[in-house]
Amino acid sequence: MSEPQTDQPEETANERLLSLDVYRGVVMLALATSGLGLAKAFAKSESSIGKWLAFQGSHPDWNSQFGIIGLSAWDLIQPAFMFIVGVSMPFSYEKRARLGESYARRMRHAWTRAILLTLLGVFLQSLRKDETNWLFTNVLSQIGLGYGFLFFLVGRSVKVQLLTGWLILVGYYALMVFLPRGLEDWKAHFENGSTFPQQFDLWFLNLFPRDKEFTGHAYSTLNFVPSIVTMLMGLMSGQILKDKDRSPTEKVRWLLIPAAVCLVTGAILGLTICPVVKKLWSPSWVLYSGGYVIALLALSYWIIDVKKWNGWVFPFVVVGLNPLTMYLLGMICKGLTRDALHRHLPDFLFTGTHGPIVEACLIALIFWLILWWMYRNRIFLRL
User: Fold this and answer.
1) Is residue 368 pLDDT above 90, yes or no?
2) How many Å apart are CA 41 and CA 48, to the nearest integer?
3) Which end of the chain has less Cβ packing within 10 Å, N or C?
4) Residue 210, Cβ density class (10 Å: 0-12 exposed, 13-18 middle, ≥19 buried)
5) pTM, whole model, 2 decimals?
6) Is the pLDDT confidence value at 8 over 50?
């Protein structure tokens, strides 16, 4: 990991889109606070609103498609995180090229970043473990495993990017349908415990040193392959936002059209030949979730950068400028912070339905104050 940076993050000030920082900030706040404690707060609620809030703050057991285009908001957090990484790439790539960096140096930076993110994810998976937990399902590891490959698509034509994305999804779907052999029908290839990515991990993860044999996990190392397309969607969206030949209205339109196409295509696939499963990162999930995260970017851009309704955004900008710091605080310090709050504050704050929400908000406030201090001192932690 590099030393904390005191210059501005990737985009220069005059071209920076505020909506990207806000988007990142909202996602990272949700991650660091476990969805503001909604799932825990309303887990035992009998009211329809309470049940709905609990559902929106939790991951479904397996299938992620409800009705035709319904889903849990909490399921969108990881694809939104990975998507916004892709959105930032064309800005970063152009800045480094403008500073005179050679292609080889930019490629070396991308692959160094990919390796560090992958290992950082393993480190976070190993917290409070007796040994290194060689598991690559943490979102940082998933981003890292795909980031280097995504770099080769920066600056390519839209046709090349689209073709690559579709080849990845179709090829991955074929692997899932035809492997492993011996299952009774194609639906069994998408059931928890029998999927090809999960079977792959039973072999792959047991190649690493561990005290106990790895026997399975809902998420899989190979999820990074289709998630490259999630980041590619972000990359292509970033290219649209950077295009100086398009008006703001045209940019919004060119985001909403593919968002609708992705959502409808993903929904149809989910109802026919490819279940929408976030934990599996099925090709239909890539498209289904992609429709939502692209549309949310279009909405954010329209409200914040076009209409300039941005008097409310500062708290999220502070987080969005230091997303890695917020994520690390959430992963490493949340438990310690929670224990300290319970130790020093009266119990009534943390009891009842409101307790988990109050706890999450206080943790968010403490983390935000740390990031605010870093913001004021122009310290931006990044790889």
Assistant:
1) yes
2) 14
3) N
4) middle
5) 0.92
6) no
